[in-house]
Amino acid sequence: MRIGALKLKAQLYCGDALAMGPGKADLLEAIAREGSISAAGRVMGMSYRRSWLLVDEMNRCWRDRLVETMPGGGKARGARLTDTGATVLAAYRALETALADATTGETLATLDTLLRTEPLSPATPLSD
Amino acid sequence: MRIGALKLKAQLYCGDALAMGPGKADLLEAIAREGSISAAGRVMGMSYRRSWLLVDEMNRCWRDRLVETMPGGGKARGARLTDTGATVLAAYRALETALADATTGETLATLDTLLRTEPLSPATPLSD
To answer: What ipTM does the predicted assembly reach?
Structure first.
């Protein structure tokens, strides 16, 4: 999530597994919109295998799975968010909003004032 | 920054250059404590060249440099934070605190309730 010069990343872990993050949230939204894991992966530029593995990881991290697949053959089988999936996605987006709101204070303004628009050119390394 | 299952990362960019982030803030703190770039790099397990390049990148991203080196020979030359360096470091830490405070609401509690402690084992990939 970008807020001017600030890049914020919120990730939820279940043990060492990434349960939710920016990419997985985008994938959930794409699945809800496209109605299938393969179509969602395609619009996000990832392979079916990759998108399937991300969905599987999410499904294993939460008390209920976030995505359910519907009967049907092949890669084109339908998929949709479960109620838990919709709840987790909404809560994650709300968390991102709360984080963004937390940056509206004076602190980020202080940093923004001091930050250049573009960096100066690299200096010659100090000689030893 | 870890808050239970949540990992938060705040990065400030100047163009494509990373002006401040968790690692650079830690390096600034180490320089303030150790009094030299090489000693700070050493306690953080990085080479002198690596720590010098990170300092140089920071110095080029802000209106004033964050670290100044003191006269003296070789890698052991002293270094300290400028006033701007101390200001930026404090503002970055304050931003992290504001972000952490923003996660104390109901949203993270909702997510925490639904999250498993450990993920289930990977499933057998769906056959195509």
So the answer is: 0.83
